[in-house]
Amino acid sequence: MLTLVVPxxxxxxxxxxYNMADTFFIGQLxxxxxxxxxxxxxxxxxxxxGLANLFGIGGASLISRSLGLGDNDKARxxxxxxxxxxxxxxxxxxxxxxLLRGKILPMIGTDDFTYDFCSDYLFWTLTIGAVPTVLxxxxxxxxxxxxxxxxxxxxxxxxxxxxxVLDPVFIFGFDLKITGAAIATMLSNLIATAYFIIMIISKxxxxxxxxxxxFYSVADGIPKEVLLVGLPSSIMNLMGIFSNITLNKLxxxxxxxxxxxxxxAKKIDMLSFAIANGLSxxxxxxxxxxxxxxxxxxxxxxxxTTLILSLSVTTVGAILLFTCAGPLVRAFIDDAETxxxxxxxxxxxxxxxxxxxxxxxxxxxxxxxxxxxQPLLLSMLRKGGLDVPFMFLLDYLGGANAIAWATPxxxxxxxxxxxxxxxxxxxxxxSEENRAAGIDE
Length: 441
Fold this sequence. Notes:
- By secondary structure, this protein is mainly alpha-helical.
- The chain has one domain.
- It is about 85% helix and about 0% strand.
- It is globular, with a radius of gyration of 21 Å.
């Protein structure tokens, strides 16, 4: 489990750090409008994560289950389907953002002060960079499904490390400001994708993963299995985008500093979430493999350990983020109003860590065993289903100071729903374990 999980956690942390790097270096320009533009652009950029999860997590689950059954040929065909379809979807998405930017950007909350900044940022990160951004993340999931967790994490870490190095070069060295941050992100993902392609080609004799289009297949229900299993993670991402856009649209009515503040707070809060998410994603191949091979005892042990570790990490993280909110936000930008909003928002949203940890582990468990409905329901409850209605209600009742409370309310509700769905499954696994051991109920 540690072999799979530790590299995944590291790669998640690196991903968050390099996402934070954009906001940090843009913040050093001292312009709340450019920080707000990065925050407003984030939902559209995060849709690439949804595409990567759709084919990456869905494909990883089916590949690990196929390998558990000894069906290497199906695993190979699944990988080709996921790689080529995700690349095509990313290309179409990037093109649509460019063609429809005049209509899309005002919808996400841009104004006269942020429109041009958002347009430049999205041109490089999505119109030019959507394909490598999606492939980078999707290939990491697929490589991890074959047990190469270290290589998967190295690829993600490579992209993140390059972004951190290139950000100041392009932002300050070439004086490109927010456009420089976008170019750095695009180049970093391009190089990371190239690493994965080279790795797959060099290990083609020992890997089931293949880039050869002749193995592309839609037979044996491959698209259905991949998409339905990956859909909950993708839906979670889409609903998160809907949630972020709604939040930004409400806060922009108060000031761009409020939008910048929530953007910084969310980036900081992502650190503890990334660790919990890395634990839950890293354990997917282990749970899926043992589920297919009927090793229930080992499967339960992996689930139990993941839950304990995730709760421990997110609880400690919530305490640290709450107590250090002011200095953390101030490190990103030296603007009094933005720091005031960001510190307040940080102390509110950080309490969701333990709730989110439980929910993401439960979602990963259901995905690992090929369940579709339960992860989809939990994903929709956590983002969009509960928090958006509460945003409007809290905006009406308490204004900008109250809106952020919609996040912990929604995460708590999703966690309770997740436990109600998971407990019967856990009891059923216990019964199967007892029967396998010859123990009467």
